[in-house]
Amino acid sequence: MVAFHDIRPRAKLHVLVVPKEHIRGSENLGERHLPLLRKMHEVGKQVLSENSGFANSNDLEKDFIFGFHRYPLRSVNHLHMHCLLRPLKHEVFNLSFTEWLPRYGFISLESVFRQIAPIESNA
Question: Which residue range or ranges hold the HIT domain (predicted)?
Fold first, then answer.
């Protein structure tokens, strides 16, 4: 797994967390991927916390955004999780990182957890 800053950041802190295993996108995730998603979340929180200047990520949790862009709005067909620290750089980016289309666009990590393991709370 690797994490790096997005080359076109939509927030002051915008990091991508990418697994080495090839998975096309969030729609290809299943229950067997829960450990991978938890690790991606952990790595994203750690990188955002370390780069924000705050020692405790719990202080910032409400300002974190974690999620994925789905087809056809996904730019790269390899799973990568966007990890952002609010505020976003421009109001228009709120549309890019909000779940407003039922099957397309952005899906939060929390929603992915609910879809693939609806009985347990994972996020």
Answer: 1-93
Angle CA 45–87–91, to nearest 5: 135
Rounded to two decimals, the pTM is 0.84
Query: 122 lies in a domain?
Result: no
Report which of 98, 113, 119, 118 is spatially closest to residue 38, judged by C-alpha positions: 113
3-state secondary structure at position 105: strand
CATH number at residue 28: 3.30.428.10
Active site residues: 80
Mean pLDDT of 21-45: 96
